[in-house]
Amino acid sequence: MTLGQHLREFRRRMIWAVVGLLIGSVAGWFLSGFILEAMRAPIAALAEQQHRLAELNYDNITGAFDLRIRIALTIGIVLSSPVWLYQIWAFLVPALNRKELRYGLGFFLSAVPLFLAGCAAGALVVPHVVELLTSFAPSESSSLIEASQYFDFVLKLVLAIGIAFVLPVFLVLLNFVGVLSGRTIIRSWRIALLTIVVFAGIATPSADVISMFLLAIPMVVLYLAAAGIARIHDRRVARTAAALDTALGA
User: Fold this and answer.
1) What is the value of pTM for the model shown?
2) Given this model, what pLDDT does residue 15 score?
3) What stretches in the chain show pLDDT beneath 70?
């Protein structure tokens, strides 16, 4: 393809991605009310449990509308992710060889479900985080939480846990391209376990340690699964190399 053909193809893919984003954002607008109620639930529970004033606060007249728009766009990005990810994938496919294509497709099919599962786990731990962080305020004080900043906090926490669930897939991908061996992944299990426990402890700062283990256990399982897949791949590569050396020697 010429440069002009590449640019036209890129423009066509971008148009479809934008259309998908717009449709997803319209759907996100109608869902934004439910998201706001879900975000407000930990604050309402805080007011009931600690018997003090706790509520979301909008610092200007357009604050509620602006937040609804941001939530709609965020939902739109998530809902339209199959569309724009496919458009990116379809644009890059002609430049990939068969092996790279197989690895990329495997990464996509495994990373997306794991990311969504991680985001769901993050949504479950948000109430615990809110409960702990607001508990440092004196019991006689009020918690007037700025809605926009609260949304940013929840979004970053959920995304961080979602990305943490995808990291084992990166380990497998690095192993498949020859950057990281399965033996190295297995030998690093102590560091990985400590990192997971610390991350889970920070993400679930609650007196209930069960919440921490509920987050840490699937991350440990994913790490062990990544190590096992990498080890199996290394053995397969070693057998293929040994068979090739035998054939050349004969």
Assistant:
1) 0.72
2) 92
3) 1, 50-51, 92-96, 99-100, 204-208, 248-250
27-80 per-position pLDDT tens digit: 999 998 888 888 888 888 777 776 677 788 888 888 888 889 988 988 888 888
65: its two tokens:
């509308």
Give the Cα separation of 89 and 19 in Å (integer).
17
Q: Name 104's Cβ contacts closer than 8 Å, sequence gap at least 6.
A: 89, 92, 96
State the SS3 of the chain: CCHHHHHHHHHHHHHHHHHHHHHHHHHHHHHHHHHHHHHHHHHHHHHHHHCCCEEEECCCCCHHHHHHHHHHHHHHHHHCHHHHHHHHHHHHHHHCCHHHHHHHHHHHHHHHHHHHHHHHHHHHHHHHHHHHHHCCCCCCCCEEEEHHHHHHHHHHHHHHHHHHHHHHHHHHHHHHCCCCCHHHHHHCHHHHHHHHHHHHHHHCCCCCHHHHHHHHHHHHHHHHHHHHHHHHHHHHHHHHHHHHHHHHHC
pLDDT at 100: 66
Instruction: Show contacts of 29-32: CB within 8 Å, 24+ apart.
Output: 29/68, 29/69, 29/72, 31/72, 31/75, 32/68, 32/71, 32/72, 32/75
Q: In whole angstroms, give the CA distance from residue 126 to residue 153.
A: 10
Task: Give the chain's radius of gyration (CA, Å).
Answer: 23
